[in-house]
Design goal:
Largest sheet: 7 strands, mixed
Distance between the termini: 65 Å
Oligomer: single chain
Number of helices: 7
Number of strands: 27
Strand content: 25-35%
Radius of gyration: 31 Å
Strand order of the largest sheet: 1-19-21-22-18-14-17
Length: 426
């Protein structure tokens, strides 16, 4: 067994920051990573590293927005009115004839307007007649159901800004401007390390005296949800030499996540080992629950997050600190989980002076408003309770508890993006 070692005094470290102060401490030290060029098919979820410009007017000419007839509005001042159909124009065709008074052209959605036409009449507002004629039954006015040239984009316009997240719709924009390849901010390289003699690896034999190492895999999944494939370094035992070897490997990455070993126990070697390897610890302990013993440090090339060993604490700290840091590294402008107001189904206990993140499920009341109900267990070691949560209910640090029916804020978790039934008919 190794003898206990003292944690060295770190003159630069801040202790007991608030959650916003800790977030600012992290984000103020991060700039996005360098750009790389990738195929459009691989770009979903990435952040653009450049402005994107339109390479044409879209539509390239005035087009019909409906199946119908291109007409002169002046021909329909008296109804019903019969007009001669001079041609059919489908999307992809170019008109061959110009409209004269008393004439119309049958046009499909997306087809260009012929010269002389100034409006579209929907086909359902007409009646076909013999001898190539059509009867018009409803009044119209110029520019009805027409998409004007350049209505969607003008050649040379900036259509996408650097920092925008590439969504399915954004992919459509990039394809429209013929960007087969696109510059995005590269993904950070992330390493994950667990620490503790008590841990049992996933592929080790069952040992009733051990605690399964769920944290490595939870953190792996949280990182993967950002489309990053992390490296799992394994479990470092409570041995300074072994821990040094593991951390040296981790410092080769852009981000190192260490789970456990950052508290004040005699065998919590993580922070002194980091200090010995040249990592400057920026803060330790944040006024929050769960997750109080979280710490953050930096080396020349690596952001180091020391997360609590309790699995729920680790997950909550990832949501508040690691997730926005990774998104900033990836060039995103939206860094934090979406929050929404909810009504509390029951009172929530909290202690003034620290922010509390309460695991909660969400439902709807008869008015359609969201209602938050805390899950039964709020233990920082109960990963099953976290698995059942839709959101983190935020009890502000300036309050001593929240009361039933009060309006509070929740941070939506991944599961809250989905629901059982659509609300489209409400």
């Amino acid at each position: 067994m190794n003898p206990p070692i003292e944690t060295p005094q770190e003159p630069t470290i801040a202790i007991g920051l608030s959650v916003p102060e800790a977030q600012a401490c992290i984000l103020d030290r991060i700039i996005p990573l360098e750009a790389e060029e990738i195929e459009l098919a691989q770009a979903l979820g990435r952040a653009l590293a450049e402005e994107v410009y339109a390479n044409r007017d879209l539509p390239p000419y005035d087009v019909s927005a409906m199946d119908g007839y291109a007409v002169r509005a002046a021909d329909l001042t008296e109804l019903p009115r019969t007009l001669q159909v001079i041609e059919d124009i489908k999307a992809g065709d170019m008109p061959r004839l110009s409209l004269q008074p008393g004439q119309c052209s049958r046009t499909m959605t997306g087809a260009p307007l012929p010269s002389g036409a100034d409006t579209i009449v929907r086909v359902e507002d007409t009646r076909p007649l013999e001898n190539g004629k059509a009867e018009f039954l409803v009044p119209t006015k110029p520019a009805t159901d027409i998409r004007l040239r350049g209505e969607s984009m003008r050649q040379g316009d900036v259509v996408l800004q650097a920092g925008e997240e590439i969504t399915p719709a954004t992919v459509g924009v990039l394809a429209t401007v013929k960007r087969a390849k696109v510059k995005v901010v590269r993904k950070p390289r992330v390493a994950i390390l667990s620490n503790g003699d008590e841990l049992e690896a996933l592929n080790e034999p069952f040992d009733p005296r051990k605690i399964p190492d769920s944290n490595s895999h939870v953190l792996m999944a949280q990182v993967q949800a950002l489309s990053i494939e992390p490296a799992l370094l394994g479990i470092a035992h409570d041995n300074p030499d072994e821990l040094t070897r593991f951390i040296e490997r981790g410092l080769e990455y852009d981000v190192l996540l260490i789970s456990g070993g950052t508290s004040v126990g005699d065998y919590d070697y993580v922070r002194p080992t980091l200090a010995a390897l040249g990592v400057t610890m920026r803060f330790w302990r944040v006024e929050m629950r769960p997750g109080h013993p979280v710490a953050f440090g930096t080396s020349e090339h690596t952001l180091v997050f020391c997360l609590p060993g309790n699995p729920v604490s680790s997950m909550v700290c990832f949501e508040q600190f690691v997730l926005p840091a990774l998104r900033r590294l990836m060039g995103h402008r939206r860094l934090f989980r979406r929050t929404i107001p909810v009504r509390l189904a029951q009172a929530v206990k909290s202690r003034q002076g620290r922010a509390e993140f309460v695991r909660a499920t969400l439902s709807r009341d008869t008015s359609g408003a969201y209602v938050a109900t805390p899950v039964a267990s709020q233990s920082s070691g109960d990963i099953l309770a976290m698995a059942r949560a839709d959101a983190l209910l935020v009890a502000p640090s300036g309050r001593n508890g929240l009361v039933t029916d009060e309006i509070a804020q929740v941070q939506l978790l991944e599961t809250a993006s989905w629901q059982h039934l659509p609300d489209t008919e409400k």
